[in-house]
Structure formats: structure tokens, C-alpha cells
Amino acid sequence: MIEANPKKAVKILLVEDNEGDIRLAQEVLAESRLVSQLDVVRDGVEALAYLRRQGRYAKASRPDIILMDLNLPRMDGRELLTALKNEDGLKRIPVIVLTTSQAEQDVLRTYELHANCFISKPVDLEQFMVVIKAIEDFWFTIVSLPTSRGAG
Known about the structure:
Blueprint: E1 10-15, H1 19-30, E2 36-41, H2 44-51, E3 65-68, H3 77-85, E4 95-99, H4 104-112, E5 117-120, H5 125-141
Parallel strand pairs: 1-2, 1-3, 3-4, 4-5
Helix pairs in contact: 1-5, 2-3
């Protein structure tokens, strides 16, 4: 198996409003062999402030990857994705949409908006953990991600 670079922590921004899903992602990543930094924001407005380093996020680090839900308060995932992919400093950050939706129009729309991946969140706890682990294995040990410095 390919091992992640142990010297470099992977920076993950989780955009999620469901407390249960936040805790599960935190637990799975904490038990991981991967060194990661997980920051959490709860809606699209907060995500943009974080990514643009505005207000209380002035010292936020640029994430290597974004995991986001579609159904978010204030600014939903589709609006957030549109904003991200239209901003030079943010458009190269890979975005994984992790949502309860299984609607074909959501799959099509998120890829039209240049999401890098669409995954339907399983409702079963054990399957959710399997999905997070698979994301980790693929995106952080196999895929070459742009460096945080190159993301703007």
C-alpha cells in the first residue's frame, strides 16, 4: 500500500452543518495513520470567509482539499462550489461533495460546477466510516494534490 508522506499534514476543510457527520469525520480521521488537520465550518458563507481569510479566519491555512455537503444553510453547496470555481485563488483546491442526495440532477449539476468528486453519504454509521476511509486512502495516498502554496 502507498503511504502518505508522514512529514506533511494534509489540511482538510469540512463544510458540514450536521453535528453527527462532523463528529464521525473527526473520529475516523483521528484514528487514521494519516497526519491531518481538519477544520470545520458549518455553511457556505463561513466557508468562503475561511478560504478568503476574512475576519476571524485571517490566519486560516489554505486546505489541500475540501469536503462539503450540498444542503447547507445561508449559502448551499452549489452556490459555494460556483464561488470557489470562479475565484482564481480557490479554484484549484479539489472539492469532494459528500451529501445525502442521490438525485441525478445533483450529481450532474455538481460536476457541471467542476466538483472533483460526488459521493452519496451513507446513513449507516459503519458505511459512513468506510466512505471516509476510502476518501482518505484515495485522495491522500494515491492522488497528487496541488500544494497549499499553489492554491493562492
